[in-house]
Protein backbone atom coordinates (compact mmCIF):
# COMPACT_ATOMS: atom_id res chain seq x y z
CA UNK A 1 0.00 0.00 0.00
CA UNK A 2 3.04 2.25 0.11
CA UNK A 3 2.29 3.68 -3.35
CA UNK A 4 -1.37 4.48 -2.62
CA UNK A 5 -0.74 8.03 -1.28
CA UNK A 6 0.63 8.95 -4.70
CA UNK A 7 -2.67 8.18 -6.38
CA UNK A 8 -5.31 10.83 -6.92
CA UNK A 9 -8.27 11.10 -4.55
CA UNK A 10 -11.11 8.92 -5.83
CA UNK A 11 -9.00 6.69 -8.08
CA UNK A 12 -9.54 2.94 -7.70
CA UNK A 13 -6.41 0.83 -7.36
CA UNK A 14 -6.08 -2.93 -6.91
CA UNK A 15 -2.96 -4.57 -5.52
CA UNK A 16 -1.51 -5.31 -9.01
CA UNK A 17 -1.91 -1.58 -9.76
CA UNK A 18 0.26 -0.74 -6.78
CA UNK A 19 2.93 -3.45 -6.85
CA UNK A 20 3.86 -6.38 -9.13
CA UNK A 21 1.54 -9.16 -7.98
CA UNK A 22 4.17 -11.94 -8.06
CA UNK A 23 6.41 -9.78 -5.87
CA UNK A 24 3.46 -9.17 -3.52
CA UNK A 25 2.78 -12.93 -3.20
CA UNK A 26 6.38 -13.59 -2.24
CA UNK A 27 6.38 -11.08 0.60
CA UNK A 28 5.88 -11.92 4.29
CA UNK A 29 2.77 -9.73 4.46
CA UNK A 30 1.00 -11.93 1.92
CA UNK A 31 2.32 -15.28 3.21
CA UNK A 32 1.80 -14.63 6.93
CA UNK A 33 -1.32 -12.46 6.99
CA UNK A 34 -3.20 -12.18 3.69
CA UNK A 35 -3.07 -15.77 2.41
CA UNK A 36 -3.98 -17.46 5.74
CA UNK A 37 -7.24 -15.47 5.73
CA UNK A 38 -8.11 -16.48 2.20
CA UNK A 39 -7.66 -13.03 0.70
CA UNK A 40 -6.07 -12.45 -2.67
CA UNK A 41 -6.73 -8.82 -3.67
CA UNK A 42 -8.19 -5.51 -2.51
CA UNK A 43 -9.86 -2.50 -4.15
CA UNK A 44 -8.42 0.70 -2.68
CA UNK A 45 -9.29 4.33 -3.09
CA UNK A 46 -7.82 7.47 -1.54
CA UNK A 47 -10.47 9.42 0.39
CA UNK A 48 -8.30 12.30 1.58
CA UNK A 49 -4.61 13.07 1.69
CA UNK A 50 -2.24 15.77 2.80
CA UNK A 51 1.49 16.24 3.14
CA UNK A 52 1.50 14.25 6.39
CA UNK A 53 -1.43 11.83 6.12
CA UNK A 54 -3.53 9.71 3.82
CA UNK A 55 -6.98 8.23 4.45
CA UNK A 56 -8.16 5.46 2.19
CA UNK A 57 -10.87 2.83 1.84
CA UNK A 58 -9.99 -0.80 1.14
CA UNK A 59 -12.43 -3.59 0.26
CA UNK A 60 -10.89 -7.04 0.42
CA UNK A 61 -11.46 -9.74 -2.21
CA UNK A 62 -11.39 -13.39 -1.20
CA UNK A 63 -10.45 -16.40 -3.36
CA UNK A 64 -14.11 -17.18 -3.96
CA UNK A 65 -14.66 -13.81 -5.65
CA UNK A 66 -11.41 -13.56 -7.57
CA UNK A 67 -9.29 -10.53 -8.31
CA UNK A 68 -10.66 -7.01 -8.51
CA UNK A 69 -12.55 -6.66 -11.78
CA UNK A 70 -14.21 -3.85 -13.74
CA UNK A 71 -17.59 -4.45 -12.08
CA UNK A 72 -16.07 -3.97 -8.64
CA UNK A 73 -14.27 -0.84 -9.78
CA UNK A 74 -17.57 0.63 -11.00
CA UNK A 75 -19.24 -0.13 -7.67
CA UNK A 76 -16.34 1.43 -5.78
CA UNK A 77 -16.63 4.56 -7.90
CA UNK A 78 -20.29 4.84 -6.86
CA UNK A 79 -19.57 4.29 -3.16
CA UNK A 80 -16.42 6.38 -2.81
CA UNK A 81 -17.99 9.88 -2.99
CA UNK A 82 -20.39 9.04 -0.16
CA UNK A 83 -17.68 7.56 2.06
CA UNK A 84 -15.40 10.49 1.34
CA UNK A 85 -18.18 12.92 2.24
CA UNK A 86 -18.70 11.08 5.54
CA UNK A 87 -14.97 11.31 6.33
CA UNK A 88 -14.90 15.04 5.62
CA UNK A 89 -18.02 15.61 7.76
CA UNK A 90 -16.36 13.64 10.56
CA UNK A 91 -13.30 15.87 10.38
CA UNK A 92 -15.46 18.99 10.59
CA UNK A 93 -17.28 17.55 13.62
CA UNK A 94 -13.95 16.74 15.30
CA UNK A 95 -12.70 20.27 14.61
CA UNK A 96 -15.86 21.79 16.04
CA UNK A 97 -15.53 19.60 19.13
CA UNK A 98 -11.96 20.77 19.64
CA UNK A 99 -13.00 24.38 19.16
CA UNK A 100 -15.91 23.94 21.59
CA UNK A 101 -13.58 22.37 24.16
CA UNK A 102 -11.09 25.22 23.77
CA UNK A 103 -13.91 27.72 24.09
CA UNK A 104 -15.19 26.04 27.26
CA UNK A 105 -11.67 26.00 28.73
CA UNK A 106 -11.36 29.72 28.07
CA UNK A 107 -14.67 30.42 29.80
CA UNK A 108 -13.65 28.27 32.77
CA UNK A 109 -10.64 30.56 33.19
CA UNK A 110 -12.92 33.48 34.03
CA UNK A 111 -13.18 34.04 37.77
CA UNK A 112 -16.69 35.47 37.47
CA UNK A 113 -19.63 33.11 37.14
CA UNK A 114 -20.66 33.08 33.48
CA UNK A 115 -23.97 31.90 32.04
CA UNK A 116 -24.90 31.90 28.35
CA UNK A 117 -28.69 31.98 28.17
CA UNK A 118 -31.43 32.12 25.59
CA UNK A 119 -34.27 34.63 25.49
CA UNK A 120 -36.28 32.50 27.95
CA UNK A 121 -33.45 32.27 30.50
CA UNK A 122 -32.59 28.67 29.60
CA UNK A 123 -28.93 28.00 30.36
CA UNK A 124 -27.00 27.12 27.20
CA UNK A 125 -23.64 26.96 28.95
CA UNK A 126 -22.16 27.78 32.35
CA UNK A 127 -18.49 27.94 33.27
CA UNK A 128 -17.00 26.35 36.40
CA UNK A 129 -17.60 29.45 38.51
CA UNK A 130 -21.19 29.54 37.27
CA UNK A 131 -21.77 25.93 38.28
CA UNK A 132 -20.30 26.72 41.71
CA UNK A 133 -22.85 29.53 42.12
CA UNK A 134 -25.70 27.18 41.21
CA UNK A 135 -24.42 24.61 43.73
CA UNK A 136 -24.73 27.27 46.43
CA UNK A 137 -28.51 27.12 45.83
CA UNK A 138 -28.76 30.70 47.03
CA UNK A 139 -29.51 33.83 45.01
CA UNK A 140 -29.38 32.02 41.65
CA UNK A 141 -30.80 28.58 40.88
CA UNK A 142 -31.45 26.37 37.86
CA UNK A 143 -35.05 25.20 37.65
CA UNK A 144 -36.05 23.03 34.68
CA UNK A 145 -32.99 24.27 32.82
CA UNK A 146 -33.81 27.94 33.43
CA UNK A 147 -31.73 30.43 35.38
CA UNK A 148 -33.91 31.77 38.19
CA UNK A 149 -33.13 34.43 40.79
CA UNK A 150 -34.45 33.92 44.33
CA UNK A 151 -35.50 37.56 44.59
CA UNK A 152 -38.70 37.97 42.48
CA UNK A 153 -37.80 41.55 41.45
CA UNK A 154 -34.29 40.54 40.40
CA UNK A 155 -35.68 37.51 38.56
CA UNK A 156 -38.11 39.72 36.65
CA UNK A 157 -35.33 42.18 35.77
CA UNK A 158 -33.08 39.40 34.48
CA UNK A 159 -35.91 37.74 32.56
CA UNK A 160 -36.80 41.01 30.88
CA UNK A 161 -33.17 41.71 29.99
CA UNK A 162 -32.72 38.22 28.48
CA UNK A 163 -35.88 38.64 26.46
CA UNK A 164 -34.77 42.06 25.26
CA UNK A 165 -31.26 40.81 24.42
CA UNK A 166 -32.58 39.03 21.34
CA UNK A 167 -32.94 42.49 19.79
CA UNK A 168 -29.25 43.26 20.27
CA UNK A 169 -27.48 46.30 21.68
CA UNK A 170 -30.41 48.54 20.79
CA UNK A 171 -32.34 47.04 23.70
CA UNK A 172 -29.69 46.88 26.43
CA UNK A 173 -26.99 49.17 25.11
CA UNK A 174 -23.43 48.28 24.18
CA UNK A 175 -22.42 47.95 27.84
CA UNK A 176 -25.47 45.90 28.84
CA UNK A 177 -27.10 46.32 32.24
CA UNK A 178 -26.07 45.58 35.84
CA UNK A 179 -28.34 44.03 38.47
CA UNK A 180 -27.52 43.87 42.22
CA UNK A 181 -27.76 40.50 43.99
CA UNK A 182 -27.53 39.56 47.67
CA UNK A 183 -26.85 36.13 49.14
CA UNK A 184 -28.54 34.73 52.25
CA UNK A 185 -25.77 36.16 54.44
CA UNK A 186 -26.28 39.66 53.07
CA UNK A 187 -23.12 39.69 50.97
CA UNK A 188 -23.50 41.73 47.78
CA UNK A 189 -22.95 40.38 44.27
CA UNK A 190 -23.34 42.03 40.90
CA UNK A 191 -24.83 40.49 37.77
CA UNK A 192 -23.99 42.06 34.42
CA UNK A 193 -26.00 41.17 31.32
CA UNK A 194 -24.32 41.54 27.93
CA UNK A 195 -26.05 40.83 24.61
CA UNK A 196 -24.58 38.21 22.27
CA UNK A 197 -26.62 39.13 19.22
CA UNK A 198 -24.60 42.07 17.94
CA UNK A 199 -21.27 42.42 16.19
CA UNK A 200 -18.31 40.20 17.08
CA UNK A 201 -19.97 38.99 20.28
CA UNK A 202 -22.38 36.91 18.20
CA UNK A 203 -19.66 34.26 17.95
CA UNK A 204 -19.50 33.91 21.73
CA UNK A 205 -22.79 32.02 21.93
CA UNK A 206 -22.12 28.27 21.95
CA UNK A 207 -25.47 27.76 20.28
CA UNK A 208 -27.54 29.97 18.04
CA UNK A 209 -30.16 30.23 20.80
CA UNK A 210 -27.80 32.02 23.23
CA UNK A 211 -28.74 35.70 23.22
CA UNK A 212 -27.05 36.96 26.39
CA UNK A 213 -24.12 36.40 28.69
CA UNK A 214 -24.63 36.89 32.42
CA UNK A 215 -21.50 37.61 34.47
CA UNK A 216 -21.88 37.20 38.24
CA UNK A 217 -19.23 38.06 40.80
CA UNK A 218 -18.98 39.07 44.42
CA UNK A 219 -18.99 42.85 44.86
CA UNK A 220 -15.42 43.07 46.10
CA UNK A 221 -12.28 44.52 44.66
CA UNK A 222 -9.92 41.95 43.14
CA UNK A 223 -6.28 42.99 43.49
CA UNK A 224 -4.41 42.39 40.24
CA UNK A 225 -1.86 39.61 40.18
CA UNK A 226 0.94 40.42 40.13
CA UNK A 227 0.44 43.95 41.57
CA UNK A 228 3.86 44.85 40.18
CA UNK A 229 2.01 45.58 36.93
CA UNK A 230 0.72 48.79 38.50
CA UNK A 231 4.16 49.65 39.84
CA UNK A 232 5.67 49.31 36.38
CA UNK A 233 2.88 51.30 34.75
CA UNK A 234 3.32 54.31 37.06
CA UNK A 235 6.96 53.81 38.10
CA UNK A 236 6.04 53.38 41.74
CA UNK A 237 8.58 52.54 44.40
CA UNK A 238 7.98 49.37 46.48
CA UNK A 239 6.83 51.51 49.42
CA UNK A 240 4.48 53.56 47.25
CA UNK A 241 2.98 50.32 45.92
CA UNK A 242 2.44 49.00 49.46
CA UNK A 243 0.75 52.25 50.45
CA UNK A 244 -1.47 52.13 47.36
CA UNK A 245 -2.58 48.56 48.00
CA UNK A 246 -3.09 49.31 51.68
CA UNK A 247 -5.41 52.19 50.78
CA UNK A 248 -7.46 49.73 48.78
CA UNK A 249 -7.36 47.08 51.48
CA UNK A 250 -7.70 48.94 54.81
CA UNK A 251 -8.91 52.44 54.02
CA UNK A 252 -7.67 55.95 54.88
CA UNK A 253 -4.34 57.38 55.96
CA UNK A 254 -4.64 56.62 59.74
CA UNK A 255 -5.55 52.98 59.03
CA UNK A 256 -2.72 52.60 56.50
CA UNK A 257 -0.24 54.12 58.92
CA UNK A 258 -1.22 51.61 61.62
CA UNK A 259 -1.18 48.68 59.20
CA UNK A 260 2.29 49.51 57.86
CA UNK A 261 3.74 50.73 61.15
CA UNK A 262 4.73 54.15 59.83
CA UNK A 263 3.67 57.69 60.66
CA UNK A 264 0.65 59.35 59.11
CA UNK A 265 2.89 62.11 57.71
CA UNK A 266 4.94 59.49 55.90
CA UNK A 267 1.78 57.96 54.46
CA UNK A 268 0.60 61.42 53.33
CA UNK A 269 3.93 61.97 51.57
CA UNK A 270 3.56 58.69 49.70
CA UNK A 271 -0.06 59.46 48.85
CA UNK A 272 1.00 62.82 47.41
CA UNK A 273 3.57 60.99 45.31
CA UNK A 274 0.87 58.59 44.14
CA UNK A 275 -1.38 61.49 43.15
CA UNK A 276 1.47 63.03 41.15
CA UNK A 277 2.46 59.82 39.38
CA UNK A 278 -1.02 58.52 38.62
CA UNK A 279 -2.86 61.76 38.00
CA UNK A 280 -5.43 60.92 40.67
CA UNK A 281 -6.63 63.67 42.99
CA UNK A 282 -8.54 61.63 45.61
CA UNK A 283 -8.03 58.34 47.39
CA UNK A 284 -11.25 57.05 45.82
CA UNK A 285 -9.65 57.55 42.41
CA UNK A 286 -6.66 55.49 43.53
CA UNK A 287 -9.02 52.66 44.46
CA UNK A 288 -10.72 52.95 41.07
CA UNK A 289 -7.31 52.91 39.38
CA UNK A 290 -6.40 49.61 41.05
CA UNK A 291 -9.80 48.17 40.15
CA UNK A 292 -9.06 48.96 36.52
CA UNK A 293 -6.11 46.58 36.64
CA UNK A 294 -8.18 43.71 38.04
CA UNK A 295 -8.41 40.76 35.66
CA UNK A 296 -11.53 38.62 35.22
CA UNK A 297 -9.22 35.64 34.65
CA UNK A 298 -7.83 33.41 37.32
CA UNK A 299 -4.40 31.93 37.30
CA UNK A 300 -4.04 28.14 37.06
CA UNK A 301 -1.47 28.42 39.79
CA UNK A 302 -3.83 30.02 42.26
- Give the low-pLDDT segments: 199-207, 295-302
Tell me the strand order in the biggest sheet: 5-4-10-9-8
Helix-strand topology string: EHHHEEHEEHEEHHEEEHHHHH
Residues in helix, %? 40-55%
The CATH topology annotation of the largest domain reads as Beta-Lactamase
What's the CATH superfamily of the largest domain, by name? PAS domain
**Beta strand count:** 10
What is the oligomeric state here? single chain
Report the CATH architecture of the largest domain: 2-Layer Sandwich
How large is the radius of gyration? 33 Å
Structural class: alpha+beta
Largest beta-sheet details:
5 strands, antiparallel
Strand content: 15-25%
Q: Supply the CATH class of the largest domain.
A: Alpha Beta
| Termini gap | 52 Å
Tally of helical runs: 12
| Number of domain units | 3
Q: Averaging pLDDT over every residue, what do you get?
A: 80
Q: In one word, what is the shape?
A: elongated
General description of the model:
Strand 8 (177-182) and strand 9 form a beta hairpin. With 302 residues, this protein is α+β, with helices and mostly antiparallel strands. It has a 5-stranded antiparallel beta sheet. Strands 1-2-3 form a 3-stranded antiparallel beta sheet. Strands 6-7 form a two-stranded antiparallel sheet. The two termini are 52 Å apart. It folds into 3 domains: 4-104, no CATH class; 109-218, PAS domain (Beta-Lactamase), CATH 3.30.450.20; 228-292, Arc Repressor Mutant, subunit A. It has helices spanning 15-18, 21-26, 28-34, 70-108, 128-136, 152-165, 169-172, 228-234, 238-250, 253-260, 264-278, 283-292, and strands at 12-13, 39-49, 54-62, 113-117, 123-126, 140-143, 146-149, 177-182, 188-195, 212-218.
Amino acid sequence: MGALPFWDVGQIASIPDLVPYDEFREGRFFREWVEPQGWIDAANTVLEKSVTSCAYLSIIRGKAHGMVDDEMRERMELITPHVRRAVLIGRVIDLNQVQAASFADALDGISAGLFLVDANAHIIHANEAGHAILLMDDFLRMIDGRLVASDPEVDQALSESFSSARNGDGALGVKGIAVPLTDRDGKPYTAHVLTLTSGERRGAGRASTAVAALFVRKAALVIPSPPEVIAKSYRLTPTELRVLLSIVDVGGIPEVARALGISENTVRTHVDNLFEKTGATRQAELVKLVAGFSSPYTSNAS
